[in-house]
Amino acid sequence: MLSTMQDVPLTVTRLLHHGVRVHGTSLITTWTGEGEPHRRTFAEAGARVAQLAHALRDDLGVRDDDRVATLMWNNAEHVEAYFAVPAMGAVLHTLNLRLPAAQLTWIVNHAADRVIVVNGSLLPLLAPLLPGLTTVEHIVVSGPGDRSVLEGARPQVHEYEELIAGKPTTYDWPELDERQAAAMCYTSGTTGDPKGVVYSHRSIYLHSMQVNMTQSMGLTDSDTSLVVVPQFHVNAWGLPHATFMTGVNMLMPDRFLQPAPLAQMIESERPTHAAAVPTIWQGLLAELTARPRDVSTLTQVTIGGSACPPSLMKAFDDLGMRVCHAWGMTETSPLGTVSRPPAGVEPDSEEEFAYRLTQGRFPAGVEARLSGPGGEHLPWDGKSAGELEVRGNWIAGAYYGGGTDGQPHRPADKFSEDGWLKTGDVGTISPDGYLTLTDRAKDVIKSGGEWISSVDLENALMSHPDVAEAAVVAVPDDKWGERPLATVVLKEGASADFEVLRAFLAEKVAKWQLPERWTIISAVPKTSVGKFDKKVLRKQYADGELAVTQL
Amino acid sequence: MLSTMQDVPLTVTRLLHHGVRVHGTSLITTWTGEGEPHRRTFAEAGARVAQLAHALRDDLGVRDDDRVATLMWNNAEHVEAYFAVPAMGAVLHTLNLRLPAAQLTWIVNHAADRVIVVNGSLLPLLAPLLPGLTTVEHIVVSGPGDRSVLEGARPQVHEYEELIAGKPTTYDWPELDERQAAAMCYTSGTTGDPKGVVYSHRSIYLHSMQVNMTQSMGLTDSDTSLVVVPQFHVNAWGLPHATFMTGVNMLMPDRFLQPAPLAQMIESERPTHAAAVPTIWQGLLAELTARPRDVSTLTQVTIGGSACPPSLMKAFDDLGMRVCHAWGMTETSPLGTVSRPPAGVEPDSEEEFAYRLTQGRFPAGVEARLSGPGGEHLPWDGKSAGELEVRGNWIAGAYYGGGTDGQPHRPADKFSEDGWLKTGDVGTISPDGYLTLTDRAKDVIKSGGEWISSVDLENALMSHPDVAEAAVVAVPDDKWGERPLATVVLKEGASADFEVLRAFLAEKVAKWQLPERWTIISAVPKTSVGKFDKKVLRKQYADGELAVTQL
Question: Where is the AMP-binding enzyme C-terminal domain (chains A, B) (predicted)?
């Protein structure tokens, strides 16, 4: 039977139109380092969005689903690109400026970007890549920075402001299919080539609604959000789109991401909300401890990207900044869970704190299940640990195939046969739908049909007074498939007694989880972002480079 | 370019699944008049939803898009039908129990309902209709009420509880197309046949997200919503669906809609939110004034259906119940606007109160435009009055055609050529997107290409000390097309002096709006719900039944 309802595509264009029309006086404020920050209303930005679209189409020849990349900080011009490119029907590709040069080059070529919009201050990063970029025809430079590094560059170079100057401030936006590609972002995995996630207009629109739901970020047009999380990092967690839906003001730090300017902009611009990863926030905490400032307006901080340490959460509580934990990844747009405690939990209680430390609860738009060692689906009992799999409209179901007409591909280790995303995260789900992550799937030890959390063993070991660091990795075992290998860094002056450490562990974990294999190392190998690099340890073990004691 | 995102249909089934799984302990509490209210968790209701679907399919033979009607109060069983019928792929048809018998019969036959689920207390209303219902095969009775009135009735009669007892508590719900029909509701217009609006799964899902957005109703799982607005009235404003999305508890008044039991259930069940039309709330106010009770938990009241008088809003503010105005209609699911004042407006100021009295602001999902006397689109300047036209995914684009395969139809007075809904409401929109309604389009006086608001003239006239009531209607005029006729009811002892009244009006409205035609009547004719019946006055004028003075 036919519904009689209208059918209007859910597009980025509608978000743009609404923000400009209904929330035209809301502000995008960009920090400039010195002097007054730069302020632009949504209405002013909307006019420039139209000008940018004209320039991209008429001057640079952007057509159909051409990719327009950005290599930019968080600022008003980056927001303009966020709307102009998808609304004109092209695809916005945000480039992660933290990636190594070779990876950036690979990604630009894989996405076949035709244009790169770049901040002047990032030209020293871009210029050396240019000879290797095979598809880029135009570079558009915005904001301060020495242009001379581009001299003799192959692609045509344009100034952002000159390019859009004098262009019409309205644009006859095409009516788009909501399933059309709108934006893309590559995951920077530690293994293999980066993988492209292509967001649709539909996924961005629905995700924006979710961000604005009461039990999500819950912001209104009285709020100002300090968007520290980069716009090249999963759409700045959806904030630029979501704010246009409800008129939330944006405070953009541009390249001033150090603790001192962040503290200064909080004091002077008085945001009510901030979104950031824990490391940035850890630095801010040290700064505020050393040089206290008035940060009283900032009462809500969304933290994601990696787990927020309890000590950091407590420290920010004490400053009046309530941390709200969230979990997500590039493949989930990113909002997967948000940790707002359930009804009935006493405020400021231990129970409430425990809920806030979980990754959070699944919203209606994200279905979740746990897949156990044998692929079976586990109960939501807060105990059974399995790999988290998710389904929903803002969850990736494939990766971009590359080139100009590459078909999406679905690696079996990333997507289940029935289309769910395998997150690679291992954890439990409580009966009321709260996710607690304990491990990465690749670090879990699969021992005789049961899973052993490497993180649990490490935390237990590191609580011993003689242990400076400990990493536990899976090693092959004839009988059990895999067993844990404990690698231990001793504190200075301490001596190794594996029997003692094993007995210490035995008080904290089940007997069958106790490692038989032990070794002393001088330091745990780390990745470029400071995480334990267990790949290296596994290889050292396989190559016989570690002196292992069998207990 | 292909997006790589998953594509999951937006369905009522997903709302059900989420509510049961993640918010399983949230409650549907049904008032029983005496003794303990009846409480059922979302998880318990979910099991019964599956049982009901089994019963409808296996015992009553409901297939495909068969219509299953409800003639019910707001209660847990009605919520169960809300989910079971659409989730199994059939169409829920909520019947308005306030309609005259002939209209109800017409509607049931037009929708070709095969089943009616009815509350026992409503059997005296249903029984006399049965001989005229041509498509109904089964009656399912729920809750208290004398069954004997059904004796000898043609359709098969079943007891709700007996029917579902012993059925499996899970159901293999079909995967549905999100554009499929989920529910339907007929408008009870004052002219012509009722018109059916058929909601899709998509429209209900998106509307539920909107209800849960911060600047909409803004409820969380700590809230309990007293759902006074009937479930047969535009899906109880979307609350049964929206609450399953976020775990908001529902307090259902069943048939106890009188002021005294409403006051009692607020005091004892302590809801935090209520949704109702002004008349119900006016009665509650009188009750609370006469017999004060502890209603301190109830801090937010959503009022819609018709404009909330300023005096009522102020009176509820004084009781600590903050009124939030909303506008909508059957054709808009119904959330069209919600009146939350914009950022920067001082709390409890005159300006804030003025914003709260508007119909509210358009959310991103509802596009709006004003169509002027000549069909031109008017600016959002807070002054230009035109007919409101809206577009969006939860806005009707047609009416149900009737019968078993009736095609939707689009009367030209209800839908624009480009598919927007013509609301029949006339008003202005401020630059920041707030709607103020001033008139129904059919009551506006179209004079020489300009529109004169009948309501403005009436309010101005009724502020004169000699005037008890006044209705202004359009009458044909050779020169101007239409001109206003002022019909005045004088207060006892007052004498008519039209010159004086005209001079009084001239201080308040523009000169060209002043009526030339005046008449005294003994009372303004009213509709069954107490509104001015201007149709009658226009006919009396046309038939020469009014003694008109020309000034």
Answer: 457-531
